[in-house]
Design a protein that fits this description.
This protein has 128 residues and is mainly α. Helix content is 54%, strand content 0%.
Length: 128
């Protein structure tokens, strides 16, 4: 691996056509070698990332800590109730709701029971 500034400059020189032609100096040939190494490294990184994502998609809970250990700080066994403690805070409502109506709405949401609607009830197909 080499300096990103150098890599940028070499790619710029290549795009400007300074690294093309029949008669290249040793410096130009070396610069082309570095560009090829850089491109191969990028291709390898893309393939590696694609493979890692494919592995993770099979079972994220199992493979994320293995493939990307820095993404998770704790395993499932290390997580305790303390990790989910609620922080003290004050809820402020800007719509002028009183505390009683908010609590009633919250109770209604928590007591949600699944229901079904017909297409006519949802006006799914629009007016007849």
């Amino acid at each position: 691996m080499y300096d990103p500034w150098l890599e940028h400059r070499l790619r710029l020189a290549n795009r400007r056509g300074l690294l093309t032609g029949k008669h290249l100096s040793r410096a130009q040939e070396f610069a082309l070698d570095l560009i090829l190494v850089s491109e191969a490294r990028e291709q390898q990184q893309k393939m590696s990332d694609a493979f890692k994502l494919a592995v993770i998609s099979a079972d994220p809970g199992r493979y994320i800590p293995i493939v990307y250990p820095g993404w998770t700080s704790k395993t499932d066994e290390e997580i305790t109730d303390k990790d989910f403690k609620e922080s003290a805070g004050d809820w402020t409502f800007t719509e002028g709701l009183d505390k009683q109506s908010v609590e009633e709405t919250l109770d209604d949401l928590m007591a949600f029971t699944p229901t079904t609607l017909s297409a006519e009830e949802m006006d799914f197909f629009g007016p007849p």
